[in-house]
Amino acid sequence: MTDLFQYVPGNSPLHRMNPVTKIALTLSVCVAAFLTDNLFVLLALILFDLMIGVAAGAFRKALAIFRGLFKVSLFLFVLQALFVRRGNRLLWIVTDEGLSTAAGVVLRLLAVCLPLALVLTVTRVSDIAGALVQVLHVPYAYAFTLTTAIRFIPQFMEEMSGIMEAQTARGVEFDTKNIFKKLGLILPLCVPLLISSIRRTGATATAAEVRGFNLRTRASGYKKYGFGLVDLAAVLISAALITGAALIP
Amino acid sequence: MIRAENVSYSYPGNAQTVAGLSFHIEKGEFAAILGENGAGKTTTVKLIDGLLKPTEGKMTVNGLDTAKSRVSERAAQVGFLFQNPDRQICRNTVREEIAFGLRAVWGRREEDKIRTRTDELLERFGFTGDEDPFALSRGQRQQVALASTLAPSPAVLILDEPTTGLDYRECTRIMDFIRQLNEEEGTTVVMVCHDMEVVLDYARRALVMAGGRLLADGPVREIFRDEALMKKASLLPPQIIRIAGELGEGFREADDAETLSSLVAAKAERRRGA
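YS: structure for the whole thing
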């Protein structure tokens, strides 16, 4: 699970694309997903996400992310189906409108999360920061904060798994099959996770400071992030996605 | 006590991390698992504790198959001290921290027993009980983690690089305590350690690993004297054994000397004889 957000080296058009274009393409998928209520358009967007995965040579990873989201989606689907009471009753308290709303929420979640995870598969976090600073003129401190947050995700997951392992070894029943009992046991773990996070943040801040963090300006990055034909194609696809989602009823 | 029968393990999506491990550790032994980074030492101790289940073979501790029983159920019998105490500590005072593990193992109905045992450990480790564990030094936090691990009096104690990041005094304090447990209470100790001096001083048996396989298993000093084995496992023997080896015949036999000065005396004696 921890490697889901990690960069996979490659030379696909998606790898070569400007990081800003990749972010724009990702955001356009998100915008399109929120503009439409049409389930078929949402399905088409998910298909488009999987095609991006194929084009990036990371189809298996896209499927792994898909599988990871499936359980959450299932839980959300059940909740939505039970709580939306509008429409015609089909079974017990489940209505047709409840089912379509639930399907919409779940498909939208999948359509939005997949490209966000995939963009990290085809882009180095340092390139995201570099391009944000150079192309979009984002202050380096903000770009650094964003990329550090992304970089910390797998580390936190690893830390959490280490903490759970340590607590299981001392008798805390994290190896129980009772999901509710497990959820109740997670609370005490927040303390070591919080402490280690604060310590890590402090150490990262010191490391950045001693390497001249405050001296960095927009001109400091040596790598240039240009735009090519592949970027133009991506911009056109982004525009088509948003227009299509807005126009298709 | 601990029996590994042709145990192999692969992390999901990876090649085999450990393969064909077979060994038997008797009650009351003090064994060290040695090897370079990536040799499979931590995987092996996690297999012993049951945090990892063998993909092939069988691991039994106290007759219990680790693949068929839950780690949390065996926590009273097997204690595991991790390299990083901060993953273990989760309460606001040292007293609460020690009691937390005991409650997990003995249950909340045993409050009197838990209080007595906590007081006993606080006195033994020299804590008042009101200290904030997160405000203590690294060595003291490791002692808190050790006290919590030892609280249910486990018959087997697994230590994963217990002395990492500790100064000499802290390291000696923790290791002396573990030796005392091993010698006086018969606790079986299995330790992963990169500090060969600590291994020589405290362990009696060494299991040498490389590339996920067990290369050798025997008394510590004999293992360290085997230069070919040390080279194969990319290990550097303790200084006293290396110096004795360099000095050659007559000195190798004296490598059980506690200090360098006794070796130097032996060297001077030899020169006089020549």
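YS: worth flagging: The beta strands of chain A are 89-91, 94-95.
IM: good catch. Also The mean pLDDT of chain A is 83.
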